Amino acid sequence: MGYTLNFNLIWRHFEKLWGGLLLSLELAVISIAIGIVIGLLLAVWYVSAGRLVRTAIAAYVEFIRNVPLILLVYLVFYGLPTVVDIAYSAQTSFIATLSLYSGAYLVEVFRSGLEAVPRGQLDAGKAIGLTPWQRLLHVRLPTMLRITLPALSNTFLSLFKDTSVASVISVPELTYGAQWINFNTFRIVEVYLVVTAMYLLTGYALLYALRLVERRFRAAH
Amino acid sequence: MLGQIAYALPFLAQGFAVTVWVSLLVVVLSLIAGVMMGVGLVYGPAPLRWAVRIFSDTIRGIPILVLIFFVYYGLPAVGIHLESFWAAVLALTLFKTAQVIEYLRGAVGSIPKGQSEAAMAIGLTFRQRLAYVIFPQAFRRFLPPWINGVTDAVKGSALVSLLGITDLMHAINQVIGRTYEAMPLYILGAVIYFVVNYALSLASRRLERRFSFIRE
Amino acid sequence: MSIPPPANPALLDISDVSKSFGTVEVLRSVSLQVTRGEVVTVIGPSGSGKTTLLRCVNFLESYDSGSIRIDGKEVGFRDTGTRQRRSERDLAKMRAETGMVFQSFNLFPHLTAAGNIMLGLRKVRGKSSTEARAIAEHWLGRVGLAHKADSLPAELSGGQQQRVGIARAVAMEPKILLLDEITSALDPELVGEVLEVVRSLAEDGMTMVMVTHEMAFARDASSRIIFMADGGVSAAGPPAEILGTEIDNERLRSFLARFRASHF
Q: What Gene3D superfamilies does the database record attribute to this sequence (chain A) (predicted)?
């Protein structure tokens, strides 16, 4: 025992943590934005496509969901450049990985959302003479979005936590900042206490904000 | 290239065995801890309920990686020395326990109040109600998500490679360090993880169908 | 002043029971005595406290004041006269003295029809598995479901499920059977088979308190009808009197008039 808490060194290097937190948020936001595009396109394609396309999309989803994120991160950052001739930074590489990763989870979210839109609404759309595209754009997607909003928030929150894996390829996000302070100051307990608090406060603040948005959205419809 | 990888297979198999062993320990330990704490959360007195709620919400609110580093680097600082293997198992167990708590709460919470009342009405005591009416029903709702969640333990176990434990993930990186065959080895690793986890999620889906209260 | 004990002590003695949910008073000093073999029907508009009263009798709900006694024993509180809740074990024992049949059946979905009946017999009454099975089969026969002993609830119709619910309650040999709107969740064509079972139990002398909207059945089967309104007993008497046209109770009259308008 005999460990006395001393936060001075943590505060001195706090910009590492603060900058890390902002980068974590940035990574999560960019990745979910790209992930939403991937998820939406594939989900819409899935529900209207034939067997072959469905199998291909399902394979992508199942593959990503059943492989550890850290392995995907390594694969894209260290593996891919050995077979294709492109160069990218660790940060770009991580964003690409996390986008593909969230895309796979969001295909499932959006697909079940699309299938949960009541038949009657689509029939009503047909009855007033909307074309299939108009039905998708004006009836199916808005309803689906309302249904899937909570799942979307949850996906974003877990992506925010998943950004910590970026530290393994030295992207200077929050967990990386924690390790830097850990190895350079040895104020181990303090730094992880502070970082835990930062993840928790940010996570629950986001959760609260997203629930507010959801309620707004529900009330508006 | 293939020759080099074939040469490394026994080493990868050892790593895979460690992955399985870590996952198994985590799954069993978290099941025990999670069910006990989950029952505390649903039926316990207020202070216990609060303690479990705070535990679960804290653990689920931080990345597993932070949890692993916190336990691994933090415990020695306060005088508790664990081998890296056991520190990793402890951290992953904490993470998984929080999940089990939520599965249990969900399973018990989904049973209609009328079931408890009917059990009360025929004169069963609290323990009897749990043992003969609530748990048998909750069990069927608990099992499919729990089995599905075992994949989270397997996937999470890949993070223990960062503590220098030679699990499958670490073994792959070590072989790559010697052979420079990054892509084939990462793909091989992905396939192995995929096969294990996909089998688990298929099992969970089958159980879900089997466990509806209608006989086929 | 000493009060001599009544000649025919009530099996169920509800006296001066009040209960509130928050600021809403759902029972206002309700008193009701039921003697052995009586069939008492409680009617009244929704929100009048009928179901709450029934649930208080086997202490699924607690009550704020007054007393509810079965065979002279207070149901939820200790005999010391204080309002100290009974222990979990004692409460379970008291609850086993009353049988309850629920509106939504509440059969245990993981147990067969026979299993539903056997659970209480084995765990509360301490019967062996063979004894319990024999009793379960006897009662399933009584409700016309001998052939469904090994069916799961999900494999039974609503009417069949409710008959199992009744068998589960009476197999425990309760002193009183409480029936809480037991046909309300049933399709109209299934109501008859359930009421038939209740009628045959009444003929056997089973003491019953039931809440129901089946007025015709209430008139034929009950010895007394209680009309509740706003948490209190507003009128009580034999069916012919309560459901007759000469009754001098404005609330009851308008309840019955509205009821007839919507049901006949």
A: MetI-like
